[in-house]
Description:
It holds the Pfam family HTH_1. This protein is 39% helix and 23% strand. The chain is an alpha/beta fold. It folds into 3 domains: 3-66, Winged helix-like DNA-binding domain superfamily/Winged helix DNA-binding domain (Arc Repressor Mutant, subunit A); 86-160 and 271-299, Periplasmic binding protein-like II (D-Maltodextrin-Binding Protein, domain 2, 3-Layer(aba) Sandwich), CATH 3.40.190.10; 161-269, D-Maltodextrin-Binding Protein, domain 2 (3-Layer(aba) Sandwich). It is globular.
Amino acid sequence: MELNDLAAFVSVARAGGFRDAARSGGVSASSLSIAVRRLESKLGLRLLNRTTRSVAPTEAGLRLIEKLTPLFGEMEAALDVLNGFRDTPTGTLKLNVPSSTARIVLPNVIASFLKQYPDIRVEVVVEDGFVDVLSIGCDAGIRYDERLEQDMIAIPIGPRVQRFATAAGPAYLDAHGRPEHPRELLSHACLRAQFAGGATPTWYFERDGEVLQLNPSGPLIVRPGAAIDLAVSCAAAGVGVIHLFEDMLRAQLDSGALEPILEPWWQRFSGPFLYYPGGRHMPAPLRAFVDFVKAANAGGSRD
């Protein structure tokens, strides 16, 4: 059995398609397709269900992935031992992060890290839902405290205190009034986000120990990610009220394109954590990144 064929199958299954797997691995989609078909032919089993829109493993394929994942992990760990003989670590660090972290936390962190470790390549997978980072082939993830798994090691990364900000364009507030209490937002046009699973994040407000939860309605709903820019632009254009990470609105607040409202009610919360599995060999790129983040925390450069 060709090891490369097995690796091709796993990469396609994890990526959910031949093209995405090809882009990630720097190979052609046709070569991956040939490798998977050759493997299926040798095994006498279909491992992937293919449609014009998606590729997903069959039951046999899932069972094979379960067995291959730890084996490939051990092989990667064995090869990673060689990094100890290099002056600087090499390899790929794959991170799974929410869209907010990709915008707020990672730009400064990754830029500084790559300057310090030019032989490491970083792949960032943006996903707002919580996932098992190991099962999807990532080395580590970044999430907030309430979404961390108990068996993971977690270290702070990025700002330790953040806030949700509420704002609207001055023209909208001139026309519809400036709310003085969060409940007044129920009668305003509010621009909302919605996760892929259909859940709409609740708007939280807090003042002097009182916590309010609101689910106002409005003319626009967007998915987190790039579409958040659309919501911010619409808020600045006077369409309605937006409630988002303060750091994601900072440029518009500073320029006056957005006007802050209900600021005494802006809820504070602890910043994100880098999390990764314990009790296993830590690849050199991940070890370098963990040490880099710990050093930055000790120096207070991102508090």
